[in-house]
Write a structure and sequence with these properties.
The protein is α/β, with parallel strands linked by helices. The chain has two domains: 14-107 and 148-192, Beta-carbonic Anhydrase, Chain A; 109-145, no CATH class. The protein has seven helices and five strands, in the order αβαβαβααααββ. It has a five-stranded mixed β-sheet with strand order 2-1-3-4-5. The radius of gyration is 19 Å and the shape is globular. The two termini are 34 Å apart. Bound molecules: zinc ion. Zinc ion is lined by residues 49, 51, 74, 102, 105-107.
Length: 193
Amino acid sequence: MFENIEHVADTITEKELKNLLLHRNRQWIYKKDGSSSVNGSLKTVVLSCIDSRVPVEKIFQAKPGELLVLKNAGNLMTDDMFRSALVASVELGAKFFIVLGHTRCGMAIKNNPAKIDHIATKISQESLNKLASRSKKDVIEWFGFFNQNEWNENATTQAEKLQKLLDETVSKDLQPTILKAIYDLDSGEVTFI
Ligand SMILES: [Zn+2]
């Protein structure tokens, strides 16, 4: 029915979760292979989606110390991701910044009224209004939803946004080269676009 991954019940307790994670961590201690002193040795930042099927370090077979990884829902270039991009390039010497989108992204629902309505039924209209007024944006824009199948376009939009933010704030010599790529959830293949 499911792939070979662990599933927990909705009723899982905090203690059970901690036990599961710590059990795995104890195994990791013996497997850990990588740096505990050098940070970002591939001089590359990857911005990807929170989707748990996009394990960036595993996709590129990166060891601890090699890749700098940022994640949020929809791999969006938000203010905080920009902050981290600057830290990575200015302080950690990152030369490349990859916006890594992926196929079948759950944030690609902007042109799907059924999915948008579903969110509105889970979050009350009052809460949606609060989110909108707090962010001073249309709430759909604030969430960062994009159109179905437009993973490439979204990655391009986010890359352009980063370039604009960099151009507005720091000199060229501090700017990483921005790349765009898509991860295919099913095949596991990465394609630069
Ligand atoms: Zn996603």
